[in-house]
Amino acid sequence: MSGRVEIRTDRIDDAVARGELPMPAVIKLDVEGAEVRALRGMRRVLAASGLRSLFVELHPDFLPSFGDSLSEAERIIEGAGLRTVYESSRAGQIHRIYRR
Hints:
Blueprint lengths: L11 H6 L8 E4 L5 H6 L2 H5 L5 E6 L11 H10 L3 E8 L2 E7 L1
Parallel strand pairs: 1-2
Antiparallel strand pairs: 2-4, 3-4
């Protein structure tokens, strides 16, 4: 066994556009360093007026392994009109709540 598992992924924006998911009012994102990739796949949802809150666990030490950075994650979130209302750090992770 190689220790490799292949999984099918999809963009939240695409699933919402196809009607497979309703437009979320709240998102909890914890993807162990793949935050920017996930955020890129939900740009339309992030910008939608119906989204009230984004709870995100950011992993600054893991982001570079995906070719990304904390500043890129922040740029996507804040570019969608969301602002930090809560922040705490623990064990190299940043927990934030963003709202409109």
